[in-house]
Amino acid sequence: MHEHRTFWFDLCHPPHVAFFAPQIKRLQEMGHTVLITVRDRFQVAELCDLSGLTYVKIGKDYGRAKWRKAMGIALRTCQLADYMRGRNVDLAVSQGSTYQVLAAKLLSIPSTFMTDYEHIYLGIAKRLADWLVFPEIIPEDVLRKKHISPGKIIRYPGLKENVYLGHFRPQGDFLKNIGVDPGNIIITIRPPAVDAHYHNPVSEELLRLIFRRMKSEPGVTVIYLPRSAASTGPLMDSGMHVVIPEKTLKGLDLIYHSDMIISGGGTMNREAAAMGVPVYSIFKGPVPAVDRYLEQTGRLHFIDSEEDIKRIRIQKRKPEMNLLNPDIDLARFLVSRLLDMAGDSR
């Protein structure tokens, strides 16, 4: 039986909500205190509302310019530290929040930095975070090359998406509720993250070619999920009708009811692959080990050229779940590790 602990979760991107919500709720059910801060960008707050999480908004989108990002890191770090000062936090937890690692260090709060993308910048985290958490799919030799102290590394089985996919129950009338004809071939498209440090413009050109292909296909409805107003650019010359949701949707329901997912990479691709939904990646940054694993298992396909786009099979699929690693209770595993880390910090 663990003593009462106080945990601080910092959520900065939409996938963080689905990943951490089951862990947060389990900790709360066990009687622990959970404090949540969110960065107000990309529907993170709206997704927290849908998940029933109580949070405080701190920080926003600081723009693409390097000087703005640097200013944003300094500003949000100070704001987080100011808000958390005196709250007796036992452990700070995030999925790649440099802001939190820095703020936690200022306040002498132990921190854990989780990521399933080994190519992100780890300089601050490997120096200042107390633990770094990776999936076992990332080979040990890859982590050794990152020069992370072995005593800081914690690894978990399966995909991070295993935390919540096993508990997902699809909403049967989801498409009708958002005004989409379920009789059509439903293709959900998410553009690449153009403001990410790993962005490659080739992804945008591939996206334009994909829209050209979809335009020629009968009975297709494209649901387009722009990352920002600027990411609607590829639609301007597509010449086709595209559904752009006016409000934040439940991503897992959207994936489940889609016949295909095409995305610029990240969690949506992995969720689709883990669920058994056909998924094509136009991500052109350094490829993560998790995506290579999904490619090898036949659950994810990379698009590298116009010829690859021509070979895509556009057809209806039978809605069903075909989960990868269905027996892993990853939420329980990670909560146990968080409690151990919080205990070690005392």
Major sheet, described briefly? 7 strands, parallel
State the name of the first-level CATH class of the largest domain.
Alpha Beta
State the CATH superfamily name of the largest domain: Glycogen Phosphorylase B
Count of helical stretches: 14
Question: Low-confidence parts, pLDDT < 50 over ≥5 residues?
Answer: none
Determine the strand fraction and express it as a percent band: 15-25%
| Spatial order of the strands forming the largest sheet | 3-2-1-4-5-6-7
Categorize the overall geometry: globular
* CATH architecture assignment name of the largest domain: 3-Layer(aba) Sandwich
DSSP strand tally: 13
SS-based structural class?
alpha/beta
CATH topology of the largest domain: Rossmann fold
Number of domains: 2
Relative helix content: 25-40%
Q: What string, H for helix and E for strand, traces the elements in order?
A: EHEHEHEHEHEHEHHEHEEHEHEHEHH
Termini Cα gap: 16 Å
As a whole number of angstroms, the C-alpha radius of gyration is 20 Å
Mean pLDDT, as a whole number? 89
Write the layout of secondary structure elements.
Elements: E1 6-11, H1 14-29, E2 33-38, H2 44-51, E3 56-57, H3 66-84, E4 91-94, H4 98-106, E5 111-114, H5 123-128, E6 131-135, H6 140-144, E7 153-156, H7 162-165, H8 174-177, E8 185-190, H9 202-215, E9 220-224, E10 242-243, H10 251-256, E11 260-263, H11 267-275, E12 279-281, H12 289-296, E13 301-302, H13 306-310, H14 330-344
Parallel strand pairs: 1-2, 1-4, 2-3, 4-5, 5-6, 6-7, 8-9, 8-11, 9-10, 11-12, 12-13
Helix pairs in contact: 1-2, 1-14, 3-4
